[in-house]
Amino acid sequence: MKPTMNQSQPENDDAKMRELILYVAQLSWKDERFGAVKLNKILFYADFIAFVKRGKSITGQKYFALDEGPAPKRLVPIREKMKKAGDIAIQKVSFSNFPQERVVALRAPKFEILNDAEGIAIVNSVVQRLRNMSADEVSEESHRFAGWQIAYERGAKTEMPYSLAVFDFEGLGIPTPALPQNLVDYGKQLYRRISDASSPN
Hints:
Elements: H1 14-27, H2 36-54, E1 63-66, E2 69-72, H3 75-85, E3 88-95, E4 98-105, H4 111-114, H5 117-130, H6 135-142, H7 146-153, H8 181-198
Helix pairs in contact: 2-5, 2-6
């Protein structure tokens, strides 16, 4: 049994994840580098950045740490149900001699199910930021996220708590908000105390 970590996130919402997959696939249909790895990373960044910005993700899905980086735990079963329902097709292509499984949207997303204009704006920015990156590049970048590193150290497929996102803005590719000056001063004082205590007499 794979280890888990304490979670701080809403319940899974497969309906929202289905519509988000369709939306991402529509946005990415001209991206020749778009495949399963990039889809995983777009969903991850969108959900975790949304959590940082407003305290809740877009889909409520749980994510775990894979070799290639973060991924939604339920992506495979959700994708299979979507294939059977005729919502998507999986196109097997080759890019730079590497095989890709590209999700192709066969219907428009139902935005009334997502019901999240702010979340859609976050998705748009994530897709744009990753558009010119290869699967290897987006995978490597996602490895910078401290949440993935902490979870992966406990073993592949360990769940990644959303709460870790608030400690690593840079790893998510978003600017670190400025801290109040009193907290900056306190941090400097604390650092000096620790440094003085650890200095040899």
